[in-house]
From TrEMBL:
Keyword check for Metal-binding: no
GO cellular component: endoplasmic reticulum; membrane
Protein's UniProt keywords contain ATP-binding: no
The gene coding this protein: Tmem33
InterPro entries tied to this protein: PER33/POM33_regulator (IPR051645), TMEM33/Pom33 (IPR005344)
GO biological process: endoplasmic reticulum tubular network organization; membrane organization
Protein name: TMM33 protein
Amino acid sequence: MADSTQNGPMQGGAGGGAVQFLMANKLDTAMWISRLFTVYCSALFVLPLLGLHEAASFYQRALLANALTSALRLHQRLPHFQLSRAFLAQALLEDSCHYLLYSLIFVNSYPVTMSIFPVLLFSLLHAATYTKKVLDARSSNSLPFLRNLLDKLNANQQNILKFIACNEIFLMPATVFMLFSGQGSLLQPFIYYRFLTLRYSSRRNPYCRTLFTELRIVVEHLIMKPSCPIFLRRLCLSSISFISRLAPTVA
């Protein structure tokens, strides 16, 4: 999950080593700052300490900051922009492109708490990884309490990624519900479906695909019990068949 960085010079004392590391990796540092800002804004939306009106503005700021981070990361992965179909196809394979699209889908929509968690948690994971590199550049044993927190976060990375994938999946019916409740646009479910197919086909992050499989196994196990009503079993089997037909082919 960590972004690839170059090892900058680490001479000049503890503080000097960290500063030199940050200056030697300007693009990664810019993404680190934008991710920390995303975490800050997301937290103030989830916990509206400054009031509900301000929380809505923090929702938009978090998504805009995430869009900036995703654009920078996409530029890092594909530095030579080309206005061609081949370049677009290559860009759509990148997770950063997926979450650039994700931010654009929800930035002007009605604030949905579920939609902010993937942004918050991805930013937190990436920021934690880079923070540890900054601490290593400063000193191998600096700020042990913070290092301990970062290690605990990293130890739970797999569970966090599964939680993110679960959010990505259940946001699909949420966008449909928002449409019928008058809080979403007509295009939002269709664009989000495209985002979900990109996440399902992701080369770097298989958790969305894994969660779909695990959910299918759980549902099939429950509906095959004798106590399950026949109509509910048929409804679930039809839904599973429909969703399976919508799933993209993964190489």
